[in-house]
Amino acid sequence: MAKIYYGMATYPLRKKCLKEVIPTIVPQCTKLFVYLNKYEDVPKILIHPKIKVIMGKEHGDCGDVGKFHFVDQVEGYYFTVDDDILYPPNYTQRMVQTIDHYRHKAVIGVHGCVLNMKNMWNYYRSRNLTNYRNRLVQDRPVHVIGTGTAAFHTSTIMIKRNDFPCPNMADIWFAIEGQKQRIPFILIKRPMFWLNDCPSSKFTTSIYRKSKKSQHGKYQTQVIKQYGAWKIYR
Q1: What residues contact 226, with CB distance under 8 A and at least 6 apart?
Q2: pTM greater than 0.90 (yes/no)
Q3: CB 37 within 8 A of CB 56
Q4: Domains defined for the chain, CATH in brackets
Q5: pLDDT value at position 203?
C-alpha cells in the first residue's frame, strides 16, 4: 500500500484552526508531520498515533519551511498543507490519482500562479493567480504552486530543508527548485470551493498577508527576478 505523508507548519495563533483542520487530514494519511513554531507545549489535538510533532524550540523556528522537515527522509506521496484550509474527504484520493496520471513526473496543486516576467515589478501583482477556492475546468500548468495545496511523489522532485534559505517564502523556494529540475507544476481541475477556508482563520493573520505587507513583497520580487528565465513545463 502506498505511503501518504502530510507536512504542516503552524504557530500558536492558529490553535483554533488546528482543531478544525486536523480531523480533515488524519483519516487520509499514513503520517502527518506537524512543525510547531513558537510553541511551548504540544496541543492535545496533535496527540495521535498518526501524528509526529517537531518542536521549533528544539530545532529552530522556521515558519512555513517546517512543512518540508521530513520530505527527504520518507518515500511515497508527500502533501504540504496549511493550518487554515479545510481539505475535502476525497482530497488524498484525487491528488494521488492525478499524480499517477502524470506518471510521477509532475508536482500538482490547487492554488498557484503564472508569473508575468515581462513586467515583474511586484510578485503579488505581476502574476495570474488561481485561488484554491475557485473552480478550474481543466488542468493548468503554472510557475508557482502554493505549498498549502501541493502534492508529489518523493521520486519526482528532490527537495531538502536546506533548499529554503529563509522562512515564509516556501512557495517561491519550492518553485525555484521545480524550475532547476524542470518539473511540471500543474493545478488540477476541480469544482468551486473544493477547498475552503477554516472558519477560525478569519480571526488570524496569514503568512501571505504578512509577506505582502512586508515592503510590499520587495524581497520576493527580487528573488523571482534574480532566478532569471522562468519556464512553464508540461
Answers
A1: none
A2: yes
A3: yes
A4: 4-227 (3.90.550.10)
A5: 61
